[in-house]
Amino acid sequence: MEIVVAGRHTEVLPKYRAHVEQKLAKVEQLAPRAQRIDVVVSHETNPRQAGSSERVELTVVDRGPVIRAEACADDRYAALDLALGKLLERLRRTRDRRKDHRNHTPIAPVDVRPPEPEPAAPAPVDPDAAVETTLGDSPVVIREKVHQAQPMTVDDALYEMELVGHDFFLFIDAETAQPSVAYRRRGWSYGVIKLDAAVTAAPLATVAG
Fold first, then answer.
1. What is the domain count for the chain?
2. Is residue 76 within a helix (H) or strand (E), and if so which, with residue range?
3. Which residues have CB under 8 Å from 57's CB, separation 6+?
4. Single residue among 69, 101, 133 that ends a domain in this structure
5. Least buried of 16, 71, 120, 170, by fewest C-beta within 10 Å?
6. Could you report the per-residue pLDDT of 93-118, keeping only the tens digit for each?
7. Would you say the C-alpha torsion 137, 142, 147, 150 has a positive or negative sign?
């Protein structure tokens, strides 16, 4: 398992890199198929945020869903411990969910259609791969990311949203094929917004003779 440590607006010393590799050895026990762990360390220079000036982001790149965690603290060692605790908890959820799926064998309906070829497994997506552009002549910077997506159920979308620790999650609904977004509401409730992507042709204009 490869561990990639990078600094964002800060320098990462070899001593800290070695500490990170030692700490992340626990990840392989819960995610033996993980290919890479991306570690991004960033520093906030604003003195008003001294208590959370060090941020550590951890991303596990696996053949399954991307699992991510991040945390802030007044030093990067404490931030790493907090982020690692969140990451290990999400990895345990993933492991338990896989066990439940293996133990549950639903009765599948009979399908008389010829089998379709299975889609190729998507290549791992680099969560930091992005393109930044400016909006015209303004100083506004737009950061764009493109992610490969497989259709999934709402339940799976909520599950993956929890794994990355976000308040929203974009996905393609497996039942309706609609672009959708799941989002967190107050308490333990969630919401789902779906887009009607149907495009109707504009009526042809008639020309008077």
1. 2
2. helix 76-103
3. 38, 39, 40, 41, 42, 68, 69, 70, 83
4. 101
5. 120
6. 877 776 665 555 554 444 444 555 55
7. negative
CA gap 41, 86 in Å, rounded: 16
Instruction: Compute the distance between CA of residue 164 and CA of residue 158 in angstroms, rounded to an integer.
Output: 10
pTM to 2 decimal places = 0.56
Residues 82 and 151 in one domain: no
CB atoms within 10 A of CB 41: 22
Distance separating alpha carbons of residues 58 and 24, to the nearest angstrom: 10
What are the C-alpha distances in Å from 35 to residues 9, 83, 89, 125? 26, 19, 19, 11
> Is residue 86 pLDDT above 70, yes or no?
yes
Q: Report pLDDT digits (tens) over 3-32.
A: 999 998 899 999 999 999 999 998 888 888
- Indicate whether 97 and 148 sit together in one domain: no
For residues 154 and 92, state if they share a domain. Answer: no
Domain enclosing residue 158, as ranges? 144-194
End-to-end CA distance of the chain: 73
Q: What is the pLDDT of residue 188?
A: 64
**Which residues have C-beta within 8 Å of that of residue 83, sequence separation ≥ 6?**
56, 57, 58, 69, 70, 71
